[in-house]
Amino acid sequence: MTERTFRIILGAILLAALYFDWRLVIYGYIVVLAFEGITNWRIPTLLSRLQGDPEAGAVCALSPGDKARINFEAERALRLVVAAFLVVSYILFNKELWFFPWFIGFALFGAGLSGICPMVMGFRWVGFR
């Protein structure tokens, strides 16, 4: 499984959970993203390794590689930021920021479909690996 496919799945699950008001699914979603961000055990990488794919840890062409100023992966930072934004907008300020989880869901779904994630590109531009 690629990161692109995983972003499509992440966006679709978040949008479905928001539409049907499945609060426990969204809480689990936040826990999974936070766990992946903290431990760097990402589901797409683990599934690729279980399938025996040698390209499981391949570096993206946009990655700065050895020139990275911050020794932290951009995909990992994306998961932590999305989890934090969901905690703030869905759990803490759900009446005031009701649109933000929807924006996150559509952004992840669109990033998966297009293969271009502006947030990951921004993290890499800043200096993340």
Task: Indicate the topology.
Blueprint: H1 3-19, H2 23-39, H3 43-50, H4 74-92, H5 99-114, H6 118-126
Helix pairs in contact: 1-2, 1-5, 2-4, 4-5, 4-6
3D structure, described in words:
The chain is mostly helical and 129 residues long. 67% of the residues lie in helices and 0% in strands. Helix 1 packs antiparallel against helix 2 and helix 1 packs antiparallel against helix 5. The protein starts with a helix and ends with a helix. The model has no long low-confidence stretch (mean pLDDT 88).
Structural class: mainly alpha
Order of helices and strands: HHHHHH
Helix content: 55-70%
What low-confidence regions span 5 or more consecutive residues with pLDDT below 50?
Answer: none
* Termini gap: 20 Å
Shape, per Cα inertia axes: globular
Radius of gyration: 15 Å
Strand fraction equals: under 5%
Number of strands: 0
The tally of helices reads: 6
Largest sheet: none
Average pLDDT number = 88
Could you give a quick summary of the protein structure above?
The chain has helices at residues 3-19, 23-39, 43-50, 74-92, 99-114, 118-126.
Structure characteristics:
129 residues, 6 helices, 67% helix
